[in-house]
Amino acid sequence: xxxxxxxxxxxxxxxxxxxxxxxxxxxxxxxxxxxxxxxxxxxxxxxxxxxxxxxxxxxxxxxxxxxxxxxxxxxxxxxxxxxxxxxxxxxxxxxxxxxxxxxxxxxxxxxxxxxxxxxxxxxxxxxxxxxxxxxxxxxxxxxxxxxxxxxxxxxxxxxxxxxxxxxxxxxxxxxxxxxxxxxxxxxxxxxxxxxxxxxxxxxxxxxxxxxxxxxxxxxxxxxxxxxxxxxxxxxxxxxxxxxxxxxxxxxxxxxxxxxxxxxxxxxxxxxxxxxxxxxxxxxxxxxxxxxxxxxxxxxxxxxxxxxxxxxxxxxxxxxxxxxxxxxxxxxxxxxxxxxxxxxxxxxxxxxxxxxxxxxxxxxxxxxxxxxxxxxxxxxxxxxxxxxxxxxxxxxxxxxxxxxxxxxxxxxxxxxxxxxxxxxxxxxxxxxxxxxxxxxxxxxxxxxxxxxxxxxxxxxxxxxxxxxxxxxxxxxxxxxxxxxxxxxxxxxxxxxxxxxxxxxx
Length: 504
What we know:
Elements: H1 22-41, H2 47-55, H3 69-81, H4 87-111, H5 113-125, H6 138-156, H7 161-177, H8 182-194, H9 201-227, H10 231-236, H11 245-262, H12 264-278, H13 301-323, H14 332-335, H15 339-350, H16 355-377, H17 395-409, E1 416-419, H18 421-429, E2 436-438, H19 449-455, E3 457-462, E4 475-478, E5 491-497
Parallel strand pairs: 1-2, 1-3
Antiparallel strand pairs: 3-5, 4-5
Helix pairs in contact: 1-4, 1-5, 1-16, 2-18, 4-5, 4-6, 5-12, 5-15, 5-16, 6-7, 6-8, 7-9, 8-13, 11-13, 12-16, 17-18
């Protein structure tokens, strides 16, 4: 009796190992993808981007709403590479890449490489660091400066006066980005003190050096604030409202609900990975994840997580309940920039996380988000809504039509645009001649009223805005070309104030 030969199945090859640094690499790559994606599908830019371009017309020690560092960086970029609408996209991406790198270094010191890698994947899913990777404003630079400052402080506590000096420079840069930095810097000081990092005389002397350096970096802007009647502080105080207790609780609920929305992709990714684990998909022998002694989180992590996140949250709660401050949603960008570290830490305490599966799910979520973004920006109906959708404004068409209307009215060169600074800013940025944008004497003091009178100005205003006296009859411009939605879509208007002096 013959027997069939045994069938030998080939041994299953183990997949290529996933290195912890892959989490940083994937998140950094997604920042670049999102910035490029926006450049492909956007018709315009966020209002904050346009505001930075408007202010970058002149180097000042401060601007009427904010400190100057983000505007200085954009001014320098434009001086090096010329006036380009993509300057804000590039600087936003570079700022977030730097933030990712510093966050990785912080996580590696406090959590170990593997958990730090998980944290970076979750960081890259945060909507402010993915969906809005194109947004360049004071928060963009603030999170970079705070991440760098925290990393330098972690190094400084190990010794070396130069690390304390860098901590002070970073703290000063954070304050020159946005005054909100004062709160997380207080949280950093709490973490240093509570973790025992300031016990020795040398460490306290280093801290004194850092504080002195921060004050020296910030001093010129502080002098500017005094000279300009505290305009930036008055702008910041606009968030304080007269509200009863119920309304103040509403401020909190609205703020934290919006923060959940912003971190939802991270939470969704965690939930999907948790579901796969419960299903048993991650319990196969080849999917077992082992902990390395180098990946044991620091015993100080609880102190540092409270200092980097909890202190700021407590301050916001006190501001809302105690002072009636209507919390602005964008304050959460910095408040929760280190939340990814805490989420990764808490998640990993139960069962070690399979980084391979996490990367797969995260890339899937990112891909779906990219597809949704592209579909939204291909839909002309978006400009029917009364809600302003900045990135869907047809900036190039606006700039071309504005310049054409000016040429129809006068042969003089177009040097100034004004009116609605968002739309006027786009008309300037996307124009080949880049006329200067005038907002008000306080906001754009480098543009004199005498020059406006002499050279004239093109007003670009929203459909409901009032035009000043002395302008020619306005021209209506429809933001949508699609005839099916043309009559329902938003419109803007152009109007010319002719030059007082003849032009040669």
